Amino acid sequence: MPRSGDVIITRVRFADTEGSKIRPALVLFEDLDNVVIAGITTNLRMKGIPLSKVEGAAQESIIKLNYIFTITNDAILKTVFHLSKEKKQMVLSEITGKLQDLDS
To answer: What is the pTM of this model?
Structure first.
């Protein structure tokens, strides 16, 4: 069962075609067999939260909090590592800041 803060490898379906890719992602939360995740990219020019090799990433990466979607548990291929408490707090702060814009 995935838990918040897990970095996973998952099969991600394309929105515009029938294909899919194997990609890393961050588990934000799981509820009723639905897993809400944020995509992770190695394109360091993208905005997001940095993720380093020292933390467990295969290569320097970015957690993309502008790329959030839902998968099912069976799409998860494996769990790679778990974020530190400090990094999870960074993710929470960033998401909270984005959601506060809803009040405006």
So the answer is: 0.91
